[in-house]
Amino acid sequence: MSFSLKLDKSRVLRVIIETLASIVTEAKFKITPKGLTILAFDDSRICLLQLKIKGEDFDEFSCDKKLDIDLNIDDLDKILKRSTLNDSLEIAFKEADNKIKIKLQRTTDEEKKLTRTFSLALSENEIENLHLDRLYEIEYNTNWEIEPAFLVEAIKDAEIYSEVLSLKATEGEGLLFSSIGTIGEMEYFLDLEDLRSSNINETCMGSYSLDFLKAILKISSITMNLEMGLKSDYPLKIIFKLENDCELSLFLAPRVEHEEDEDDNEDMDDF
Fold first, then answer.
1. How many domains does the chain have?
2. Per residue in 110-162, pLDDT tens?
3. Among 102, 124, 154, 265, which has the highest number of CB atoms less than 10 A from its own CB?
4. What is the value of pTM for the model shown?
5. Are 68 and 195 in the same domain?
6. Cβ neighbours of residue 61 under 8 Å, at least 6 residues apart?
7. 234 lies in which domain range?
8. Mean pLDDT to the nearest integer, 84-106
9. Same-domain status, 137 and 265
10. Mean of pLDDT values over 3-9
11. Based on the domain organization, do 7 and 109 belong to the same domain?
12. Does a structural domain hold residue 83?
C-alpha cells in the first residue's frame, strides 16, 4: 500500500499542520483514493479536529488502497517549518518503509532548484480510530456564518480578562461574546446584519476554553469562510473553509461549573 501527494506551494498545509500542532501531539491520517482526512483530539479529550482535503485539490495525488497511518504532528510541523511558503511539497509513503518521505523544493532567482528530503517514522503510539458520526448528527438549531476577523477579535478581547470565552446567540437579535475576570469584563455584540448569514432559531449559550480557541488563530490567514453552530450544553462546532478547498472541523466541549470545581470541562466522551 502506498500514497503520494504534491502541492506546488506548501503554504496551506504548513499553516494547517502548525495549527494542529498547537493543540495536539499526534494525529491519524486516513488516506483513500478520494483524498486525505486527518483526525486528532487533545489529551484531555476536550477538542476534536478533522481536516478533509479531496484528492483533486492537490496538484498531484495518488493512493492505491485505503490506509491509516499515525504521525507525530509536532515532528511533522518541525519539518514543514523548514520550508518557505512558496516551496513545493511532496509527501510519499510505502508500507514496506514504515515511514513517510517529505520533499521540499525551491526554485531560486537563478532558476536553480534546491531540493531537500526528510523522512519521518510513523508514531509508535496507536492512535484511537475516531468516529465523528455522533458529533455530526447533533442538530444545531443555531448556526451562522461569520467573518473570520470577527472571531479573532472576540478571542483576543476575551483573553484580556479570563481563560474562558462565553457565547450567547439570541433569536431575532444576534451574538454576544463575553468574558469576565477580576479586573473587569468584556462584551462584543454582533447583530444579525453583521453576520454573513444566520439561522438562529432558539436562544442558547455556552462557555469555552480560550486555550484551544487561541490556538486556531493561526489558521485565520487561510480561512475563506467560517461557519459556527451553538447548542446549550453541547460542543461548539466551527467549520473553517480554507484555501485550496480544504475544510477543517473543530468540536470544542463546553466548560461546566461544579460546586467543587468551577473551572471543570466536559469531554467528548459525554457526547
1. 2
2. 677 889 999 999 988 776 766 677 888 899 989 999 999 999 999 999 999 99
3. 154
4. 0.90
5. no
6. 3, 4, 5, 6, 35, 36, 55
7. 133-270
8. 91
9. yes
10. 94
11. yes
12. yes
Q: Which of 121, 146, 172 is the last residue of a domain?
A: 121
Q: Could you write out the three-class secondary structure of the chain?
A: CEEEEEECCCHHHHHHHHHHHCCCCEEEEEEECCEEEEEEECCCCCEEEEEEEEHHHCCEEEECCCEEEEEEHHHHHHHHCCCCCCCEEEEEEECCCCEEEEEEEEECCCCCEEEEEEEEECCCCCCCCCCCHHHHCCCCCEEEEECHHHHHHHHHHHCCCCCEEEEEEECCCEEEEEEEECCEEEEEEEEHHHCCEEEECCCEEEEEEHHHHHHHHHHHHHEEEEEEEECCCCCEEEEEEEHHHCEEEEEECCECCCCCCCCCECCHHHC
Residue 226 falls inside a structural domain: yes
Q: What is the pLDDT of residue 24?
A: 92
pLDDT at 165 over 70: yes
Q: Is the pLDDT of residue 3 over 80?
A: yes
Tell whether 54 and 144 lie within a shared domain. Answer: no
Domain membership of residue 127 (yes or no) is no
* Total residue count of the chain as it appears in this document: 271
Among 184, 248, 211, 189, which residue's Cα sits nearest to residue 51?
A: 248
Query: For the domain that residue 256 is a member of, what is the CATH number?
Result: 3.70.10.10
Distance CA 171, CA 203 (A): 5
Question: Grid coordinates in use for 266?
Answer: 466536559
Mean of pLDDT over the chain = 91
Give pLDDT, residue 218. Answer: 87
